[in-house]
Structure formats: structure tokens, C-alpha cells
Amino acid sequence: MSTPPDHGRAPGDDAISDLPATPVTPLPAPVPRDGADPFAAPFWKERGWLLAAGFLAAALALSLLALVTRPDTPPLLETASAAGPLTQGAAGSGGRPTGCATDDGDRADPGAPPADLRWRTLGGTRVPVSAAAGPTEKTGPVRWCFAHTPMGAVLAAHVIPAQMTSSDWREVTRDQVVAGFGRDLFVSQRGSFSDARLKTRRNGSYAGFLLADYGSDDATVDVLIKSPDGPYFSTSVRLQWSGGDWKVLPANDGGLHTELTSVGGTDGYVLWKV
Predict the structure, then answer these.
(1) Sequence-distant (≥ 6) Cβ neighbours of residue 13 within 8 angstroms
(2) Closest C-alpha among 135, 171, 168, 170 to residue 153
(3) Angle at which helices 181-190 and 54-62 pack, to 10 degrees?
């Protein structure tokens, strides 16, 4: 099992398994579609240790329990509020939740980052976002409303899992992870870990992506991650169009992504060019 690298590592660290710190520089926010910036939350209130690719911290650590932890009854998301933006039922136009509207016309396989790409910080995590492809809305801790397009799926594969090490993971899981046995097991496993334990997990920076598979109702995104000394790693995130938005589809072992795999370079990937 690979140990996920640390986004917040000091420049002098040289552990091969760690991924590089990304310089935090102020970047312009995505232009909101309706006057509300989904990333306008007071990020200084979030934990500064949130990792550059947060799903690696949570899901890889939790996978250690996958073979021995099986919930006898489905674990409840009882600490989450009764309903979130994606659990209230579709009420808007086109089957989208109220307040969510995106341009879903571009169904081409993305060969480059979106023209309006911006990088925003979730705690200590820098994630790619787009005013056109999403996320365009924020409700509580949930950043949601991705375009029903290949690029919308790509961005969802980066943004959604990166929120899983926050103290609000239950709300995110409730709204943005597909319900079923895999989610139940993830909840059981994640609930076994304190924030303090996940705080010590190390991570790295998003380097690129490959849209491995895409359909109107499902997608698989290979996420490329860069280590500090040059090597690259890849992991796959599966998504499903559900409730009017993209959600992560967990595996039956509770994992939100596949195991980290070393790759020889960036060939075949679309690079974020950060």
C-alpha cells in the first residue's frame, strides 16, 4: 500500500513517497454564474492540513480496514443535516437541483484544461475549477453543480474527493458519493479515523488527468499526481451521474479510488500545467 505524499511538506524533505508542496499564490476566483462564488467560504476556518489530493489521505488510509471491517447494518450519516443540495430531489430545469445550471453542450473528450481554468484552495488543497464546468455552487461544505460533460466529470473527480479529510466529510459523502454498500463501508471506515490521525497523512499535487471512459451516466477519470523528486503516480476515480450532478462511485471495498500506481511519465495525460 502506497503512503500518500504531503502537499504541505517543507522544501528540505526528500521522502520519495511524498508529493511536492504547491506554492500558495493568490489566484482569481471563478466568475460566478449567478453572482454567488461557490468558493467564497472563509477558508481560514478550515483545517490548514487539508491535503493537496485529499482522497489519497482518507481513502488509502481507510483501505487498510477494508478486509476486516464490514458493517452489519448500514452506518448512518446521522451527523449530517437532514437534506443537502443533492438529496432534496431534482426540482430545477432539466432534472438539475434548484439553483444549478450549466452549459452542457461541449461533449468532446478534453484534450486540454478548460480555457477558464482557475485554481482555488480548499484548506491546504489546491483544486482545479471552472466557471463553465464547475463547481458553480456551494451549500455548506459541499461544492457542487458540475457540467454534465466530460470536463465536468474530470473536475468532479478532483474536487469531491479532496474534501474527504475535512470535519464535514459526512455532509460531502451524503451528497456526493453514490449510495450503496460501498458508501456504507466507506462511512464505517472513515468514522474509525479521527481528524488528528488523518492530519499526519502526506500528499502531493495534481499534475494532470486522462478521461479513461465516459458515458452520459458514468465516467472514469485517471488522476495524475506528481511526487517531489520527479516520479508520477496515477489513480482512477469512478463517477456516476446521479440526482442531477456527478458523484463519486465507490468500490465495494469502500475505496473512493484505485490503488496508487507508479507511472513512467506524463505521456497520454492532459497536464494541468501548474
Answers:
(1) 6, 228
(2) 135
(3) 90
Give the pLDDT band (50/70/90) at residue 273.
Answer: confident
Is omega for the bond preceding 135 within 30 degrees of 0, making it cis? Answer: yes
CB atoms within 10 A of CB 55: 25
Overall average pLDDT of the 89-117 stretch? 86
Strands (E) in the chain, as ranges, are 117-122, 125-130, 137-139, 142-144, 205-214, 218-226, 232-242, 245-248, 261-263, 270-271
Residue 135's contacts (CB-CB under 8 Å, 6 or more residues apart) are: 38, 129, 143, 144, 145, 146, 155, 156, 159
Residue corresponding to grid cell 482557475: 118
Give the 3-state secondary structure of residue 105: coil
Where does the pLDDT of residue 271 fall: very low under 50, low under 70, confident under 90, or very high at 90 and above?
very high
- What is each CA distance from 43 to 3, 38, 112, 119, 166, in whole angstroms? 27, 12, 29, 14, 12
- CA-nearest of 48, 47, 60, 45 to 4 is 60
Tell how strand 137-139 and strand 245-248 pair up.
Answer: unpaired
Report yes or no: 172 and 142 within 8 Å, Cβ to Cβ: yes
- Please count the other Cβ atoms lying within 10 Å of the Cβ belonging to residue 14: 9
